[in-house]
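explain this chain.
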Amino acid sequence: MANSGLLKNIRSGIIVLGLFASVTTGLVVLVHQLTEERVAANERAAVLRSLHALVPSDRLDNDLYHDAITVRDPELLGAPDGVMVYRARKQGLPVATIFNVVAPDGYSGPIALLVAVTYAGEVMGVRVVGHKETPGLGDKIEERRTPWLHGFERKNLQDPPLVSGWGVRRDGGAFDQFSGATITPRAVVKAVKNTLVYYSRHRDELFAAPSAKELAP
């Protein structure tokens, strides 16, 4: 009888532990799902804020976040694994592209940029989204520190001229450098120019390619 009671207690304990483990696992999975969804939503909101800073929401009516493709051209776009290109449209017509490119030759390392280009091939705007440039010198490429980036707006491959104008003034180009820091702005100017060159060669392909969302199973 004693053994029978002991076995009964063991079985009860195993059942309780099993139920506890099941409930705990379910809670962990639920929390993970909720947290993952919240993180994804926050990341999406942050990306959209950056994109709409360059292409205002009233200029488009498509899902800018999902109407995106990955393109590869390490020489012009700076990233060996490809860069994301977001496409803005209104009433089905192309409005602009936003390239998440890399200037690989910054003073302290690669500089990550967003470069918005209108359908006609003009720069709508440029923003720096990541860099390790020297504080007080190279970090003047940040919009919150100086208006230097706004100097790219409305520029294209003819204005300034591609051969002579797309450089810093020290190199005979049309764009200012910073006092004590030439390498950083030189890298950004080159990256923006290369983005325009890539766009001019691939404009129709960029807007015709299916988005990652359309390709998803």
Summary: The radius of gyration is 26 Å. The chain has a mean pLDDT of 86. Residues 70 and 84 are 5 Å apart (CA to CA). Residues 2-54 form the longest helix (53 residues).
